[in-house]
Design a protein that fits this description.
This protein is mostly beta strands. It is built from no helices and six strands. The strands form two sheets. It has a three-stranded antiparallel β-sheet with strand order 1-2-3, with no helix packed on it. The protein has a three-stranded antiparallel β-sheet with strand order 4-5-6, with no helix packed on it.
């Protein structure tokens, strides 16, 4: 999940369906926010945890795992030129 640019964090959750995967998605947009230029996915460590909320951080995001009463952290590595 590289770079901070124009983007949005999304949450996939088994709270919606037992067949859904619990994961974090980062969608990146062009500067005008009209076209998707990239998508990246990261599965939460505990599946079927009913992922619940996201909290964006400076270099990553926290996600709650509802049924396990845990918080998962995804860190975005620093970009290198």
């Amino acid at each position: 999940m590289r770079g901070r640019g124009g983007g949005q964090w999304l949450l996939g959750s088994s709270i919606v369906s037992d067949k859904a995967r619990d994961l974090i998605v980062r969608v990146r947009f062009d500067p005008s926010w009209t076209c998707v230029v990239g998508e990246e996915y990261a599965a939460l460590p505990t599946q079927h945890c009913k992922a619940h909320r996201l909290l964006p951080l400076e270099r990553g995001v926290l996600a709650t795992e509802l049924t396990t009463a845990r918080v998962a952290r995804l860190t975005v590595p620093e970009e290198r030129c």
